[in-house]
Amino acid sequence: MSQSQFPQVRKLVTELPGPKSKEFAQRKQEAVSSCVATQNPIYAQYAGGGIIVDLDGNSFIDMGSGIAVTTVGATNERVAAAIKKQADHFTHTCFMTTPYQGYVEVCEFLNQATPGDFSKRSVLLNSGSEAVENAVKVARQYTGKPAVAAFEHAYHGRTNLTMAMTSKVSPYKSGYGPFAPEVYRMPMSNPYRDGLSGDEAAARTINWLEKMIGAKNLACIVIEPLQGEGGFIVPAEGFLQNLAKWASENEVVFVADEVQCGYGRTGKMFDSEWEGITPDVICTAKGIAGGMPLSAVTGREEIMNAGVAGGLGGTYGGNPVSCAAALAVAESIKKDGLLEVAQRFEKIIRERLSALAASDQRIGDVRGRGAMMAIELVDSEGKPDAGLAKEIQNRAYQRGVILLACGTEGNVIRMLPPLSMPDELLDDALGVIEQILKEI
Ligand SMILES: *Cc1c(COP(=O)(O)O)cnc(C)c1O
Protein backbone atom coordinates (compact mmCIF):
# COMPACT_ATOMS: atom_id res chain seq x y z
CA MET A 1 0.00 0.00 0.00
CA SER A 2 2.72 2.40 -0.87
CA GLN A 3 0.84 5.47 -2.02
CA SER A 4 3.93 7.07 -3.35
CA GLN A 5 4.30 8.52 -6.79
CA PHE A 6 8.07 8.20 -6.89
CA PRO A 7 10.27 5.07 -6.98
CA GLN A 8 10.70 3.22 -3.70
CA VAL A 9 14.45 2.73 -3.95
CA ARG A 10 17.47 4.11 -2.13
CA LYS A 11 19.48 6.06 -4.66
CA LEU A 12 22.16 8.73 -4.38
CA VAL A 13 22.81 10.84 -7.47
CA THR A 14 25.06 13.60 -6.05
CA GLU A 15 27.64 13.84 -3.31
CA LEU A 16 26.01 14.65 0.03
CA PRO A 17 24.79 17.22 0.57
CA GLY A 18 24.06 18.07 -3.07
CA PRO A 19 24.39 21.64 -4.39
CA LYS A 20 20.75 22.67 -3.86
CA SER A 21 20.65 21.36 -0.31
CA LYS A 22 23.98 23.01 0.36
CA GLU A 23 22.57 26.35 -0.70
CA PHE A 24 19.65 25.99 1.73
CA ALA A 25 21.93 24.88 4.53
CA GLN A 26 23.76 28.17 4.02
CA ARG A 27 20.52 30.16 3.98
CA LYS A 28 19.37 28.30 7.09
CA GLN A 29 22.50 29.36 8.89
CA GLU A 30 21.73 32.99 8.07
CA ALA A 31 17.99 32.85 8.80
CA VAL A 32 17.19 30.24 11.43
CA SER A 33 18.15 30.27 15.10
CA SER A 34 21.24 28.15 15.51
CA CYS A 35 19.50 26.54 18.52
CA VAL A 36 17.24 24.73 16.03
CA ALA A 37 19.46 21.82 15.05
CA THR A 38 19.09 19.80 11.84
CA GLN A 39 20.54 16.30 11.90
CA ASN A 40 21.31 16.02 8.18
CA PRO A 41 21.90 18.97 5.83
CA ILE A 42 19.61 17.64 3.09
CA TYR A 43 16.41 19.48 2.25
CA ALA A 44 13.26 17.50 1.51
CA GLN A 45 11.40 17.80 -1.77
CA TYR A 46 9.07 14.79 -1.62
CA ALA A 47 8.40 12.08 0.95
CA GLY A 48 6.15 9.05 0.96
CA GLY A 49 6.06 5.27 1.08
CA GLY A 50 9.40 4.70 2.78
CA ILE A 51 11.44 7.32 0.94
CA ILE A 52 12.49 10.96 1.32
CA VAL A 53 13.72 12.64 -1.88
CA ASP A 54 15.91 15.70 -1.43
CA LEU A 55 16.17 18.84 -3.62
CA ASP A 56 19.03 17.30 -5.58
CA GLY A 57 17.09 14.12 -6.38
CA ASN A 58 18.73 11.83 -3.82
CA SER A 59 16.39 9.18 -2.37
CA PHE A 60 16.84 8.23 1.29
CA ILE A 61 15.18 5.44 3.22
CA ASP A 62 13.19 7.08 5.99
CA MET A 63 13.78 5.18 9.24
CA GLY A 64 12.49 8.04 11.39
CA SER A 65 9.00 9.03 10.12
CA GLY A 66 9.75 12.61 11.17
CA ILE A 67 10.14 11.26 14.74
CA ALA A 68 7.24 8.78 14.76
CA VAL A 69 4.78 11.17 13.10
CA THR A 70 4.16 9.94 9.54
CA THR A 71 3.14 6.46 10.67
CA VAL A 72 0.67 6.15 7.78
CA GLY A 73 3.15 7.65 5.30
CA ALA A 74 4.04 11.24 4.45
CA THR A 75 1.78 11.35 1.39
CA ASN A 76 -0.98 9.00 2.45
CA GLU A 77 -3.74 9.32 -0.17
CA ARG A 78 -6.60 9.25 2.32
CA VAL A 79 -4.93 11.93 4.43
CA ALA A 80 -4.01 14.18 1.49
CA ALA A 81 -7.57 13.96 0.10
CA ALA A 82 -9.14 14.74 3.49
CA ILE A 83 -6.86 17.76 3.94
CA LYS A 84 -7.70 19.14 0.48
CA LYS A 85 -11.42 18.68 0.99
CA GLN A 86 -11.45 20.35 4.40
CA ALA A 87 -9.23 23.21 3.18
CA ASP A 88 -11.79 23.89 0.43
CA HIS A 89 -14.55 24.16 3.05
CA PHE A 90 -12.74 26.18 5.75
CA THR A 91 -9.33 26.19 7.42
CA HIS A 92 -10.33 27.66 10.77
CA THR A 93 -13.25 29.03 12.72
CA CYS A 94 -11.95 28.32 16.26
CA PHE A 95 -13.83 25.50 17.98
CA MET A 96 -14.43 27.75 20.99
CA THR A 97 -16.38 30.29 18.92
CA THR A 98 -18.00 28.36 16.04
CA PRO A 99 -17.61 24.60 16.51
CA TYR A 100 -17.44 22.02 13.72
CA GLN A 101 -18.02 18.29 13.28
CA GLY A 102 -14.43 17.07 12.85
CA TYR A 103 -13.42 18.03 16.38
CA VAL A 104 -16.31 16.07 17.90
CA GLU A 105 -15.66 13.08 15.62
CA VAL A 106 -11.96 12.90 16.57
CA CYS A 107 -12.92 13.00 20.27
CA GLU A 108 -15.53 10.27 19.73
CA PHE A 109 -12.91 8.14 18.00
CA LEU A 110 -10.33 8.65 20.78
CA ASN A 111 -12.87 7.91 23.51
CA GLN A 112 -13.64 4.52 22.00
CA ALA A 113 -10.12 3.66 20.74
CA THR A 114 -8.30 4.26 24.05
CA PRO A 115 -8.22 1.45 26.63
CA GLY A 116 -10.95 1.34 29.30
CA ASP A 117 -14.69 0.88 28.86
CA PHE A 118 -15.68 3.72 31.19
CA SER A 119 -17.15 7.05 30.12
CA LYS A 120 -14.47 9.34 28.63
CA ARG A 121 -14.04 12.86 27.33
CA SER A 122 -11.26 14.44 25.22
CA VAL A 123 -9.75 17.84 24.50
CA LEU A 124 -7.77 18.62 21.34
CA LEU A 125 -4.59 20.71 21.25
CA ASN A 126 -1.62 21.32 18.96
CA SER A 127 1.50 19.56 20.22
CA GLY A 128 2.63 16.74 22.44
CA SER A 129 3.95 19.20 25.01
CA GLU A 130 0.60 20.94 25.14
CA ALA A 131 -1.17 17.60 25.65
CA VAL A 132 1.08 16.77 28.61
CA GLU A 133 0.53 20.25 30.08
CA ASN A 134 -3.23 19.74 29.83
CA ALA A 135 -3.07 16.26 31.36
CA VAL A 136 -1.37 17.80 34.38
CA LYS A 137 -3.97 20.59 34.45
CA VAL A 138 -6.92 18.18 34.58
CA ALA A 139 -5.21 15.95 37.16
CA ARG A 140 -4.56 18.93 39.46
CA GLN A 141 -8.07 20.29 38.97
CA TYR A 142 -9.65 16.91 39.72
CA THR A 143 -7.51 15.94 42.73
CA GLY A 144 -6.90 19.41 44.17
CA LYS A 145 -3.29 18.29 44.69
CA PRO A 146 -0.12 19.93 43.30
CA ALA A 147 2.67 17.37 42.79
CA VAL A 148 3.63 15.59 39.57
CA ALA A 149 5.76 12.43 39.41
CA ALA A 150 7.92 12.04 36.29
CA PHE A 151 10.62 9.48 35.58
CA GLU A 152 14.28 9.03 34.83
CA HIS A 153 14.96 9.23 31.06
CA ALA A 154 11.53 10.78 30.50
CA TYR A 155 10.85 13.15 27.64
CA HIS A 156 7.66 15.21 27.76
CA GLY A 157 8.45 18.31 25.70
CA ARG A 158 9.98 21.77 25.62
CA THR A 159 7.45 24.11 27.24
CA ASN A 160 8.21 25.29 30.75
CA LEU A 161 6.27 22.61 32.64
CA THR A 162 7.27 19.82 30.27
CA MET A 163 10.95 20.89 30.40
CA ALA A 164 10.66 20.41 34.16
CA MET A 165 9.22 16.94 33.55
CA THR A 166 11.85 16.02 30.94
CA SER A 167 14.86 14.26 32.37
CA LYS A 168 17.83 15.11 30.15
CA VAL A 169 19.36 18.52 30.81
CA SER A 170 21.35 19.14 27.62
CA PRO A 171 20.19 20.20 25.08
CA TYR A 172 16.62 20.48 26.38
CA LYS A 173 16.85 22.42 29.64
CA SER A 174 20.26 23.89 30.30
CA GLY A 175 20.01 27.65 30.78
CA TYR A 176 16.24 27.76 30.14
CA GLY A 177 15.09 27.64 33.78
CA PRO A 178 13.74 28.33 36.32
CA PHE A 179 11.35 25.46 35.80
CA ALA A 180 7.83 24.78 37.03
CA PRO A 181 7.77 23.60 40.66
CA GLU A 182 6.34 20.43 42.21
CA VAL A 183 7.80 18.03 39.67
CA TYR A 184 9.56 15.02 41.22
CA ARG A 185 11.78 12.54 39.42
CA MET A 186 11.22 8.86 40.15
CA PRO A 187 13.31 5.77 39.31
CA MET A 188 12.36 4.03 36.06
CA SER A 189 12.36 0.32 35.43
CA ASN A 190 15.20 -0.33 33.00
CA PRO A 191 15.70 -4.10 32.91
CA TYR A 192 18.80 -4.05 30.71
CA ARG A 193 20.58 -1.78 33.20
CA ASP A 194 19.06 -2.49 36.61
CA GLY A 195 18.30 -6.21 36.34
CA LEU A 196 15.19 -5.74 38.51
CA SER A 197 11.92 -7.55 37.95
CA GLY A 198 8.80 -5.44 37.39
CA ASP A 199 7.67 -6.09 40.97
CA GLU A 200 11.06 -5.12 42.44
CA ALA A 201 11.37 -1.97 40.35
CA ALA A 202 7.79 -0.95 41.21
CA ALA A 203 8.38 -1.51 44.94
CA ARG A 204 11.42 0.77 44.74
CA THR A 205 9.49 3.47 42.86
CA ILE A 206 6.44 3.27 45.14
CA ASN A 207 8.72 3.65 48.16
CA TRP A 208 10.13 6.83 46.58
CA LEU A 209 6.63 8.11 45.76
CA GLU A 210 5.59 7.64 49.38
CA LYS A 211 8.78 8.99 50.95
CA MET A 212 9.64 11.90 48.62
CA ILE A 213 6.17 13.14 47.66
CA GLY A 214 3.39 11.45 49.62
CA ALA A 215 0.14 10.34 48.02
CA LYS A 216 -1.80 13.14 49.69
CA ASN A 217 0.28 15.70 47.76
CA LEU A 218 0.45 13.86 44.45
CA ALA A 219 -1.91 14.78 41.60
CA CYS A 220 -0.55 12.44 38.95
CA ILE A 221 2.04 9.98 37.77
CA VAL A 222 3.03 10.79 34.18
CA ILE A 223 4.88 8.04 32.35
CA GLU A 224 5.66 6.92 28.81
CA PRO A 225 4.67 3.21 28.70
CA LEU A 226 7.55 2.73 26.24
CA GLN A 227 10.01 5.57 26.60
CA GLY A 228 10.89 7.43 23.41
CA GLU A 229 13.71 9.98 23.50
CA GLY A 230 15.03 8.37 26.71
CA GLY A 231 16.15 5.27 24.78
CA PHE A 232 13.16 3.10 23.83
CA ILE A 233 13.19 1.62 27.31
CA VAL A 234 10.57 -1.09 27.77
CA PRO A 235 9.92 -1.46 31.50
CA ALA A 236 10.07 -4.90 33.11
CA GLU A 237 6.77 -6.79 32.97
CA GLY A 238 4.39 -5.75 35.73
CA PHE A 239 6.14 -2.46 36.58
CA LEU A 240 3.42 -0.31 35.03
CA GLN A 241 0.61 -2.51 36.36
CA ASN A 242 1.92 -2.12 39.90
CA LEU A 243 2.23 1.65 39.55
CA ALA A 244 -1.26 1.95 38.06
CA LYS A 245 -2.68 -0.12 40.91
CA TRP A 246 -0.93 2.02 43.52
CA ALA A 247 -2.19 5.18 41.80
CA SER A 248 -5.81 4.00 41.80
CA GLU A 249 -5.61 3.02 45.48
CA ASN A 250 -4.20 6.42 46.41
CA GLU A 251 -6.38 8.83 44.44
CA VAL A 252 -3.52 9.64 42.11
CA VAL A 253 -4.29 10.11 38.41
CA PHE A 254 -2.29 7.70 36.22
CA VAL A 255 -1.34 9.49 32.99
CA ALA A 256 0.18 7.59 30.04
CA ASP A 257 2.18 9.83 27.71
CA GLU A 258 1.65 7.88 24.47
CA VAL A 259 2.74 10.77 22.28
CA GLN A 260 5.50 8.65 20.69
CA CYS A 261 4.50 5.03 21.38
CA GLY A 262 0.77 5.41 20.72
CA TYR A 263 -1.45 5.50 17.68
CA GLY A 264 -0.57 2.19 16.06
CA ARG A 265 3.19 2.59 16.27
CA THR A 266 3.76 -0.49 18.46
CA GLY A 267 1.29 -2.76 16.66
CA LYS A 268 -1.73 -1.93 18.82
CA MET A 269 -3.53 1.42 18.85
CA PHE A 270 -1.95 2.15 22.25
CA ASP A 271 1.11 0.64 23.87
CA SER A 272 -0.77 0.52 27.20
CA GLU A 273 -2.70 -2.41 25.70
CA TRP A 274 0.48 -4.52 25.50
CA GLU A 275 1.21 -3.63 29.13
CA GLY A 276 -2.28 -4.58 30.33
CA ILE A 277 -2.89 -1.18 31.90
CA THR A 278 -5.86 1.17 31.69
CA PRO A 279 -4.59 4.71 32.22
CA ASP A 280 -6.96 7.30 33.69
CA VAL A 281 -5.69 9.80 31.14
CA ILE A 282 -3.82 9.30 27.83
CA CYS A 283 -1.86 11.91 25.86
CA THR A 284 -1.64 11.43 22.09
CA ALA A 285 0.08 13.48 19.39
CA LYS A 286 2.82 12.65 16.84
CA GLY A 287 1.20 9.87 14.74
CA ILE A 288 -2.37 11.12 15.21
CA ALA A 289 -2.79 13.28 12.10
CA GLY A 290 -0.15 12.28 9.54
CA GLY A 291 2.03 15.30 10.29
CA MET A 292 -0.67 17.93 10.71
CA PRO A 293 -0.34 19.61 14.12
CA LEU A 294 -2.78 17.94 16.50
CA SER A 295 -2.68 16.42 19.96
CA ALA A 296 -5.22 15.18 22.45
CA VAL A 297 -5.87 14.38 26.07
CA THR A 298 -8.42 11.62 26.63
CA GLY A 299 -9.51 10.50 30.06
CA ARG A 300 -12.18 9.51 32.53
CA GLU A 301 -15.21 11.76 32.25
CA GLU A 302 -15.04 12.89 35.89
CA ILE A 303 -11.39 13.93 35.53
CA MET A 304 -11.79 15.67 32.16
CA ASN A 305 -14.93 17.49 33.32
CA ALA A 306 -13.57 18.61 36.72
CA GLY A 307 -12.95 22.27 35.84
CA VAL A 308 -15.25 25.08 34.73
CA ALA A 309 -16.33 25.65 31.10
CA GLY A 310 -13.59 27.62 29.32
CA GLY A 311 -10.82 26.19 31.51
CA LEU A 312 -9.38 24.14 28.64
CA GLY A 313 -8.88 25.04 24.99
CA GLY A 314 -6.80 27.31 22.79
CA THR A 315 -7.10 29.28 19.55
CA TYR A 316 -5.84 26.55 17.23
CA GLY A 317 -6.55 23.42 19.28
CA GLY A 318 -8.29 20.81 17.12
CA ASN A 319 -7.82 22.73 13.88
CA PRO A 320 -10.39 21.47 11.33
CA VAL A 321 -7.78 20.51 8.70
CA SER A 322 -5.83 18.58 11.35
CA CYS A 323 -9.03 16.86 12.49
CA ALA A 324 -9.86 15.82 8.92
CA ALA A 325 -6.33 14.40 8.63
CA ALA A 326 -6.73 12.56 11.95
CA LEU A 327 -9.96 10.90 10.85
CA ALA A 328 -8.24 9.79 7.63
CA VAL A 329 -5.29 8.42 9.64
CA ALA A 330 -7.67 6.39 11.81
CA GLU A 331 -9.35 5.06 8.68
CA SER A 332 -6.00 4.18 7.10
CA ILE A 333 -4.80 2.30 10.18
CA LYS A 334 -7.98 0.22 10.12
CA LYS A 335 -8.63 -0.28 6.41
CA ASP A 336 -5.00 -0.69 5.35
CA GLY A 337 -4.28 -3.15 8.18
CA LEU A 338 -1.45 -1.06 9.59
CA LEU A 339 -1.41 -2.64 13.06
CA GLU A 340 -0.52 -5.93 11.37
CA VAL A 341 2.16 -4.13 9.35
CA ALA A 342 3.71 -2.76 12.56
CA GLN A 343 3.75 -6.27 14.05
CA ARG A 344 5.33 -7.66 10.88
CA PHE A 345 8.00 -4.93 10.94
CA GLU A 346 8.84 -5.91 14.52
CA LYS A 347 9.42 -9.51 13.42
CA ILE A 348 11.61 -8.44 10.50
CA ILE A 349 13.67 -6.00 12.57
CA ARG A 350 13.97 -8.21 15.65
CA GLU A 351 15.09 -11.22 13.64
CA ARG A 352 17.84 -9.35 11.78
CA LEU A 353 19.09 -7.37 14.76
CA SER A 354 19.00 -10.26 17.24
CA ALA A 355 21.08 -12.36 14.83
CA LEU A 356 23.51 -9.46 14.55
CA ALA A 357 23.62 -8.95 18.34
CA ALA A 358 24.42 -12.65 18.86
CA SER A 359 27.69 -12.22 16.98
CA ASP A 360 28.49 -8.60 17.88
CA GLN A 361 29.15 -7.65 21.51
CA ARG A 362 28.72 -3.96 20.72
CA ILE A 363 24.96 -4.47 20.49
CA GLY A 364 24.09 -4.76 24.16
CA ASP A 365 20.35 -4.92 23.76
CA VAL A 366 17.66 -5.21 21.09
CA ARG A 367 14.30 -3.93 22.28
CA GLY A 368 11.04 -2.20 21.49
CA ARG A 369 7.69 -3.11 20.01
CA GLY A 370 6.14 -2.99 16.58
CA ALA A 371 7.69 -0.35 14.35
CA MET A 372 9.43 1.19 17.37
CA MET A 373 12.62 -0.83 17.76
CA ALA A 374 16.13 0.02 18.93
CA ILE A 375 19.62 -1.26 19.56
CA GLU A 376 21.66 -0.09 22.54
CA LEU A 377 25.36 0.22 21.73
CA VAL A 378 28.01 -0.50 24.34
CA ASP A 379 31.81 -0.67 24.59
CA SER A 380 33.83 -3.71 25.67
CA GLU A 381 32.97 -3.00 29.32
CA GLY A 382 29.25 -2.71 28.61
CA LYS A 383 29.29 1.07 29.04
CA PRO A 384 27.20 3.28 26.73
CA ASP A 385 28.98 4.00 23.44
CA ALA A 386 27.54 7.22 22.01
CA GLY A 387 30.46 7.58 19.59
CA LEU A 388 29.55 4.34 17.87
CA ALA A 389 25.90 5.39 17.56
CA LYS A 390 26.96 8.67 15.97
CA GLU A 391 29.31 6.88 13.59
CA ILE A 392 26.59 4.44 12.47
CA GLN A 393 24.17 7.32 12.00
CA ASN A 394 26.67 9.32 9.90
CA ARG A 395 27.65 6.41 7.71
CA ALA A 396 24.02 5.43 7.19
CA TYR A 397 23.26 8.97 6.02
CA GLN A 398 26.20 8.85 3.62
CA ARG A 399 24.63 5.71 2.13
CA GLY A 400 21.10 7.04 1.95
CA VAL A 401 19.49 5.85 5.18
CA ILE A 402 18.03 8.34 7.66
CA LEU A 403 18.52 6.90 11.14
CA LEU A 404 17.75 8.57 14.47
CA ALA A 405 19.61 8.14 17.74
CA CYS A 406 18.17 8.54 21.23
CA GLY A 407 18.87 7.70 24.87
CA THR A 408 20.04 9.75 27.82
CA GLU A 409 23.57 8.65 26.89
CA GLY A 410 22.98 9.06 23.14
CA ASN A 411 24.00 5.44 22.51
CA VAL A 412 20.72 4.04 21.19
CA ILE A 413 19.83 3.78 17.50
CA ARG A 414 16.08 3.81 17.05
CA MET A 415 14.02 2.59 14.14
CA LEU A 416 10.68 4.22 13.40
CA PRO A 417 9.86 3.34 9.79
CA PRO A 418 6.58 4.58 8.34
CA LEU A 419 4.12 1.70 7.99
CA SER A 420 3.80 2.59 4.30
CA MET A 421 7.37 1.37 3.71
CA PRO A 422 7.71 -1.65 1.40
CA ASP A 423 9.38 -4.62 3.15
CA GLU A 424 12.24 -4.56 0.62
CA LEU A 425 13.24 -1.07 1.74
CA LEU A 426 13.21 -2.09 5.39
CA ASP A 427 15.43 -5.06 4.50
CA ASP A 428 17.73 -2.76 2.57
CA ALA A 429 18.07 -0.34 5.52
CA LEU A 430 18.81 -3.19 7.95
CA GLY A 431 21.39 -4.52 5.51
CA VAL A 432 23.10 -1.12 5.48
CA ILE A 433 23.30 -1.14 9.29
CA GLU A 434 24.79 -4.66 9.23
CA GLN A 435 27.33 -3.62 6.62
CA ILE A 436 28.36 -0.53 8.59
CA LEU A 437 28.85 -2.53 11.79
CA LYS A 438 31.06 -4.94 9.87
CA GLU A 439 33.22 -2.08 8.64
CA ILE A 440 33.72 -0.19 11.91
C1 LIG B 1 7.71 14.27 21.21
C2 LIG B 1 7.17 13.97 22.56
C3 LIG B 1 6.54 14.96 23.34
C4 LIG B 1 6.46 16.40 22.90
O1 LIG B 1 5.73 16.56 21.74
P1 LIG B 1 5.86 17.91 20.87
O2 LIG B 1 4.80 17.77 19.84
O3 LIG B 1 7.24 17.93 20.32
O4 LIG B 1 5.61 19.04 21.81
C5 LIG B 1 5.99 14.57 24.54
N1 LIG B 1 6.07 13.31 24.98
C6 LIG B 1 6.67 12.34 24.27
C7 LIG B 1 6.69 10.95 24.79
C8 LIG B 1 7.25 12.63 23.04
O5 LIG B 1 7.89 11.68 22.34
Automatic annotation (TrEMBL):
The EC number(s) this enzyme carries: 2.6.1.19, 2.6.1.22
The keyword Transferase belongs to this UniProt entry's keyword annotation: yes
Cofactor: pyridoxal 5'-phosphate
Superkingdom: Bacteria
CDD domains registered for this protein in UniProt: OAT_like (cd00610)
Annotated GO MF terms: (S)-3-amino-2-methylpropionate transaminase activity; 4-aminobutyrate:2-oxoglutarate transaminase activity; identical protein binding; pyridoxal phosphate binding
Reaction catalyzed: (S)-3-amino-2-methylpropanoate + 2-oxoglutarate = 2-methyl-3-oxopropanoate + L-glutamate; 4-aminobutanoate + 2-oxoglutarate = succinate semialdehyde + L-glutamate
BP GO terms, sorted: gamma-aminobutyric acid metabolic process
Keyword Nucleus listed: no
Pathway membership: Amino-acid degradation; 4-aminobutanoate degradation
PROSITE patterns: AA_TRANSFER_CLASS_3
Keywords: Aminotransferase, Pyridoxal phosphate, Transferase
Family: Belongs to the class-III pyridoxal-phosphate-dependent aminotransferase family.
Protein name (Swiss-Prot/TrEMBL): (S)-3-amino-2-methylpropionate transaminase
Organism for this UniProt entry: Winkia neuii
